[in-house]
């Protein structure tokens, strides 16, 4: 836990719990009699607190750290705005990949880029994780596009974008069943945390939306608490973590802290997942300062890692300027710029992005092949594809720097 959390009690209320009857789900498969006995009888589920009008306990060193992180995020966003076209897409993808990795969905930069060329249901088992990360990228995009409307409709739309390719039955719908975190599949009795009964979800989410609409709270503080409250409500049957982190970006954009790019805050959270989950537990115990501090710490880490990635990509792009021999404005230069945002491309991708005929992409690609800027491969699903190994290596290096140091048990 970062050292700038001040000592002393928090005035935030802790969760209370209610006893509920448990009705076993007989479709959960075979289990021993001993295991079945462990999951019988009533269980305890959280009762969500009402946060819409609560005073937020932030002062002293924590308040100063919030201000410093806010300035750093705004500076990063402004710096990236000068060449937003290539880097906005890449930063969005790295954020989506990091958020997915927190949920143990991992894939290489190449696999993610290749999955973008194939619709989700056609991706196949080999690219299943990558295609889910692509869906998460689209959910992040939806979160930003809908940032002007912090509402139930917007949150349901984010979730629908995330889940429809792989689990359409629950996509864009509040859950209608009890869920729990940890403890096994048979029931919630030994879970690490049991979110509220589904009958409480709609009202709790409306209260959260009123909280997010307030303008008397520092944006990072508001985002941290909104995220923790969302994860506590756990309004969906699946996809809560990724949707909840997308909600952070929606709120940051809605409040004007970010205007140009999606800074990779999940990559900052990924560096210490245990601390992230512990902060959520502290929030539920009545102390929101830990999740605020964790988001601040993650923000500094994310900005530093994001800057390193952009610097490496700029260096790569500058080296291409020396290797490419073509008149300025030619399609070969335009494809080179495209590769910074989409390091794996096919003829259709290029033609659509550059608004040219597919037949006109091959000559400039030959120039890029001859200099080693791209290499070519063939795939049964994607046909001919070209990829920049340098950009992919930079993205994998970013992921390695952000890589999960410890996993939640």
Describe the protein's architecture and organization.
The longest helix is centred in the last third of the chain and has 35 residues, at 289-323. The chain has 2 domains: 16-307, Orthogonal Bundle (Fic-like fold), CATH 1.10.3290.10; 326-396, Orthogonal Bundle (Arc Repressor Mutant, subunit A). By secondary structure, it is mainly α. The strands form 2 sheets. It has a 3-stranded antiparallel beta sheet. It has a two-stranded antiparallel sheet with strand order 1-2. The chain contains 16 helices and 5 strands.
Helix content: 40-55%
Proportion in β-strands: 5-15%
Give a count of the beta strands, DSSP E runs of length 2 or more. Answer: 5
Q: What's the number of domains?
A: 2
The CATH architecture term of the largest domain is Orthogonal Bundle
- The Cα radius of gyration reads 23 Å
What is the CATH class name of the largest domain?
Mainly Alpha
Uncertain spans, ≥5 residues at pLDDT below 50?
A: 1-7
The largest sheet is: 3 strands, antiparallel
Sequence of secondary-structure elements: EHEHHHHHHHHHHHHEHHEEH
Which SSEs are present, and which pair or pack?
Layout: E1 16-20, H1 33-38, E2 43-47, H2 60-80, H3 84-102, H4 109-115, H5 128-145, H6 152-163, H7 201-212, H8 219-233, H9 240-254, H10 265-270, H11 273-284, H12 289-323, H13 331-341, E3 344-345, H14 347-354, H15 362-370, E4 375-379, E5 383-387, H16 389-402
Antiparallel strand pairs: 1-2, 3-5, 4-5
């Amino acid at each position: 836990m970062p050292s700038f959390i001040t000592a002393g009690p928090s005035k935030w209320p802790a969760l209370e719990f209610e006893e509920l009857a448990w009705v076993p789900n007989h479709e959960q498969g075979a289990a021993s009699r001993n295991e079945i006995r462990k999951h019988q009888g009533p269980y305890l589920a959280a009762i969500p607190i009402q946060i819409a009008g609560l005073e937020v306990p932030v002062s002293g060193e924590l308040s100063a750290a919030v201000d410093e992180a806010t300035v750093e995020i705004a500076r990063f966003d402004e710096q990236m705005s000068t060449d937003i076209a290539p880097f906005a897409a890449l930063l969005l993808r790295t954020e989506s990949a990091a958020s997915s990795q927190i949920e143990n969905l991992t894939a290489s930069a190449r696999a993610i880029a290749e999955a973008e060329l194939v619709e989700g249901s056609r991706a196949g088992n080999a690219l299943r994780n990558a295609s889910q990360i692509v869906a998460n990228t689209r959910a992040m995009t939806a979160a930003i596009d809908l940032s002007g409307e912090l509402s139930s409709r917007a949150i349901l739309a984010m979730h629908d974008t995330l889940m429809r390719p792989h689990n359409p039955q629950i996509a864009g719908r509040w859950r209608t069943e009890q869920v729990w975190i940890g403890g096994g599949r048979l029931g919630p009795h030994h879970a690490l945390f049991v979110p509220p009964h589904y009958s409480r979800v709609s009202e709790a989410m409306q209260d959260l939306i009123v909280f997010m609409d307030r303008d008397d709270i520092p944006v990072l503080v508001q985002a941290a608490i909104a995220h923790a409250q969302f994860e506590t409500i756990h309004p969906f049957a699946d996809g809560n973590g990724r949707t909840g982190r997308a909600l952070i970006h929606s709120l940051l954009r809605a409040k004007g802290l970010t205007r140009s790019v999606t800074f990779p805050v999940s990559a900052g959270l990924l560096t210490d997942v245990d601390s992230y989950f512990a902060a959520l537990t502290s929030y539920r115990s009545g102390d929101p300062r830990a999740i605020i501090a964790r988001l601040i710490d993650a923000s500094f880490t994310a900005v530093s890692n994001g800057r390193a990635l952009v610097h490496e990509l700029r260096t790569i792009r500058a080296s291409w300027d020396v290797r490419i021999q073509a008149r300025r404005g030619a399609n070969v230069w335009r494809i080179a710029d495209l590769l910074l945002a989409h390091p794996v491309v096919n003829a259709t991708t290029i033609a659509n992005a550059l608004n040219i005929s597919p037949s006109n992409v091959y000559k400039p690609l030959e120039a890029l092949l001859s200099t080693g800027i791209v290499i070519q491969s063939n795939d049964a699903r994607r046909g001919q594809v070209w990829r920049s190994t340098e950009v992919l290596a930079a993205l994998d290096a970013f992921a390695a720097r952000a890589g999960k140091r410890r996993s939640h048990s």
